[in-house]
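Re-run with default settings, no changes from the original entry. Doing this only to confirm the output is reproducible before filing.
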Amino acid sequence: MSVQQVDQGRLQSPFYPRYKALDRLDTWHTWKGYTSADALFDGELEYFAIRNSCAVFDLTPMTKYRITGPDSLDYIDRLVTRDMRKIAAGRVAYAVWCNDQGQVIDDGTIFHLRDGEYRLCSQERHLAWLTAAAIGFNVTIKEETADIAALAVQGPTSYSVMKNLGLKGIENMKPFGLMHFDFQGSEIMVSRTGFTGDLGYELWLEPGKALDLWDALFEAGKLHGITAMGTHALEQARIEAGYLAAYEEFLPADETIRTGRSRSPFELGLDWLVDFKKPNFNGRRALAEEKLNGSTWRLVKLDIEGNKPAHHSYVYAKPRKNKKEIGFITSAAWSPICKQNIALGSVRMPHGKVGDSVWVEVYYQREMHWSKVMAEAKVVDKPFWFPPRRGATPPGPY
């Protein structure tokens, strides 16, 4: 059985017994029906494992779909905004898919496993929408969330851990590549992907081998600082990497109620994912009009003065009285590794060009006293954290 029922109707990942044995805080939440840890022993130490050694995160609850059939490429290419014909077998693509109004329904990764065989991974569940979009295509779409156990192995020593695990040829894998290996008589797929902005891998296999993989992985990493982590550490790392998160940087277009609350790829800084050389894809006409007429919003990366995180703050063009807000912060953090006060935000055009200065209204509480600071922020164009090892092939041993 791939999953087990637990209290309050939640499910256990196949890795749950190992996570539970490490837990010291008892802080859990529900991720798509599964029990998932906020942190296990110390969120900050788990975060530093990502940046200094090797951290392991249970990805099993991520929504996963297997797409196969003679028209699988045509179907996926019609579905998303980027040109999937350029993604060869053995490669992974980051992609977004839109409704007819050109608004983002979700983002995710598409794994070209083998010729005519794909896996789409996303935040939200989309089986009904994917099935409706498949009308006229000879494809089979199957949700396999519970059929595939998955771990993210991230950080500077992750390559050394993979080598110790006996994955021959892993040194030749480039970013967004994938390979298949034998693991105790079962197939394991390894991709050089992750949500931390660092060197890292994701491991995918059948649930029955999950605990064996966990034990072998931690044995291989015992001299390389391998540590399990929870969601809080991952969230810190993804903000430093400048990665988007559903319900933070954007709302899925099919979930919004009020007009103007969803975002297009252009408004999320994902114009590089929109390929108008393709003859057709969902939302193409609306996106072509937006490209011609301009967007309403712009996603910005902000380097903010001071060290008070700008959670849920408004963004202003000027710090004067009677000021008018031009946007708001979507994700914020003090970055220990970058020594910066960082944030992602959504501002109205034409504000937020790279190099612009804006002002952020930061509220914070110390000893029951609330304070307000108007902090200057610089709009930057690069991820806050992008170490050379992230793209090195082969990665250096750490």
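The CA atoms of residues 90 and 113 lie 6 Å apart. The helical segments are 16-22, 43-52, 72-79, 127-133, 158-164, 210-220, 231-241, 284-293.
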